[in-house]
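Question (not urgent): is this output format expected?
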Amino acid sequence: MTDAKPLEGRLALVTGASKGIGAATAKALAAAGAHVVLTARDVRALEGVEDEIHAAGGQSTIAPVDLTEGDGIARLAQAIAGRWDKLDILVISAAYLPTLTPVTQIDPKQFNTALTTNVLATQALLAGFDALLKRSGQGRVIGLTSSVGASPRAYWSAYGASKAAFENLLDSYAAEVEKVGNVKVAIVDPGATRTAMRAKAYPGEDPSTVKEPVRVAERLVELLAGDFETGHRERVAETA
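Got this back:
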């Protein structure tokens, strides 16, 4: 291992890796030496991210999966376990933002998609990859959240409720594995970041006024290349 490649030899799985923070994180992890498994629904977009990683000399594998499919995550876990004997890093970046609306007008279908993507899929990921993370000896899980998970805001209830449950799952998992291995869990709030999700929530915002996804990706690599206490929480700074 060298300073230039602090994650050399590690296997990382990034959900939501086809765009935004997930794609930026996948590329940053690969640049730091990790072999990155890229997962999302959009095959073409995943191939684009993989092409960029390979062009930069990195290593990656695409594994298209719809996290809302009943057995999608189980199949993903089985495929990865069939090829590798451990998983060192799990970054849960995929998320679904329902239309912002009053509590009384939440669309049930969108709310169900948010709960499935942001909560049920998270539990399935932790269950599916728990054994591989423990075999790593230095397994790390980072979940990307939002400030509305802890601080309710008008019209954000559907997303905020799903993120509150997301954080509870991760914190509970952290407490459960803390004494039985070396798996560590962190929850990171990216803050205002130039993503498609941000543009959907703030359509009138000038995107140049918020940081690019690469800033978040760089901070995640810093965390993973160093060490952190399980249960670590932080919000990524708006400026370098």
